Amino acid sequence: xxxxxxxxxxxxxxxxxxxxxxxxxxxxxxxxxxxxxxxxxxxxxxxxxxxxxxxxxxxxxx
Length: 62
Fold this sequence. Notes:
The protein is mainly beta and 62 residues long. It is 8% helix and 47% strand.
Protein backbone atom coordinates (compact mmCIF):
# COMPACT_ATOMS: atom_id res chain seq x y z
CA UNK A 1 0.00 0.00 0.00
CA UNK A 2 1.32 3.45 -0.88
CA UNK A 3 0.99 6.44 1.43
CA UNK A 4 -1.37 9.16 0.27
CA UNK A 5 -0.04 12.74 0.40
CA UNK A 6 -1.76 14.75 3.12
CA UNK A 7 -2.84 18.12 1.79
CA UNK A 8 -1.47 20.13 -1.11
CA UNK A 9 1.44 21.88 0.61
CA UNK A 10 4.90 20.63 -0.30
CA UNK A 11 8.41 21.70 0.73
CA UNK A 12 10.51 23.39 -1.95
CA UNK A 13 14.12 24.62 -2.06
CA UNK A 14 14.88 28.06 -3.50
CA UNK A 15 18.41 28.68 -4.83
CA UNK A 16 20.03 31.98 -5.82
CA UNK A 17 20.42 32.54 -9.58
CA UNK A 18 23.12 35.25 -9.38
CA UNK A 19 25.42 33.34 -7.02
CA UNK A 20 26.62 30.77 -9.60
CA UNK A 21 27.46 33.51 -12.11
CA UNK A 22 29.45 35.50 -9.52
CA UNK A 23 31.99 32.67 -9.10
CA UNK A 24 31.99 33.04 -5.30
CA UNK A 25 32.16 29.86 -3.18
CA UNK A 26 29.05 28.48 -1.46
CA UNK A 27 25.36 28.82 -2.28
CA UNK A 28 22.35 30.73 -0.96
CA UNK A 29 19.34 28.47 -0.42
CA UNK A 30 16.03 28.83 1.39
CA UNK A 31 13.46 26.16 2.27
CA UNK A 32 9.78 27.12 2.07
CA UNK A 33 6.41 25.53 1.31
CA UNK A 34 4.00 26.03 -1.54
CA UNK A 35 0.53 24.88 -2.45
CA UNK A 36 0.98 22.58 -5.45
CA UNK A 37 -2.60 23.16 -6.67
CA UNK A 38 -2.36 26.97 -6.75
CA UNK A 39 1.31 27.23 -7.77
CA UNK A 40 1.88 24.58 -10.42
CA UNK A 41 4.98 26.17 -11.97
CA UNK A 42 8.36 26.82 -10.38
CA UNK A 43 8.47 29.54 -7.72
CA UNK A 44 10.62 32.66 -8.04
CA UNK A 45 11.08 34.95 -5.05
CA UNK A 46 13.40 37.84 -4.20
CA UNK A 47 15.34 36.81 -1.09
CA UNK A 48 18.42 38.10 0.73
CA UNK A 49 21.77 36.54 -0.24
CA UNK A 50 24.18 36.97 2.71
CA UNK A 51 27.31 36.20 0.61
CA UNK A 52 26.54 38.82 -2.06
CA UNK A 53 25.05 41.08 0.65
CA UNK A 54 21.97 42.03 -1.41
CA UNK A 55 18.50 40.93 -2.50
CA UNK A 56 18.58 38.48 -5.43
CA UNK A 57 16.13 36.29 -7.35
CA UNK A 58 15.90 32.77 -5.94
CA UNK A 59 14.34 30.04 -8.12
CA UNK A 60 12.87 26.69 -7.12
CA UNK A 61 15.13 23.72 -7.79
CA UNK A 62 14.24 20.01 -8.43
